[in-house]
Amino acid sequence: GAGVSQSPSNKVTEKGKDVELRCDPISGHTALYWYRQRLGQGLEFLIYFQGNSAPDKSGLPSDRFSAERTGESVSTLTIQRTQQEDSAVYLCASSLTSRETQYFGPGTRLLVL
Amino acid sequence: GESVGLHLPTLSVQEGDNSIINCAYSNSASDYFIWYKQESGKGPQFIIDIRSNMDKRQGQRVTVLLNKTVKHLSLQIAATQPGDSAVYFCAERSGGYNKLIFGAGTRLAVHP
To answer: What is the model's pLDDT at position B99?
Structure first.
């Protein structure tokens, strides 16, 4: 079946602009996660969704970052007033339940000029 | 605090040799560990996982070993191939759900 998909694959924006990143999880997966990966580094947890609720938002770096999930499916990560330090790859993962293996999408490469 | 680290940032091996990638973790309460492979420009790909009630698990050409006494995890790749060249991440889970803590990664370079 189809894996996790993310769009856009690449995004270049100017400092101060808002961006929206989209994640389509594997169908039927109840849990969804967002991570950030800076160049040459490991993955940093941002937020976890169970269904449409986000029990853990502890990884969101600032109030400029927000995320939502609708229909227990698609999720959108929004970054307002982007800064250069927001440049990174943003990865989405989903799992069948909150205890099952996470499967990752290809990521969105964000560059803030 | 929680941390997952890797002993070697890069590992170079000859094609056909066995590779061993090591990982240390600090949270003795972690109950689940997982290895991912990440090729350039792609998202992490699941390789193998292991629960804390096991000390060894085998897959196709890969074996994960868990030593809870010294809080050490390793990934063994048999007969390494050029297609195995990638960055490998270990991660641990210690919460009630699937929040993973990742290490910085080890780059595996396979030479012909």
So the answer is: 84
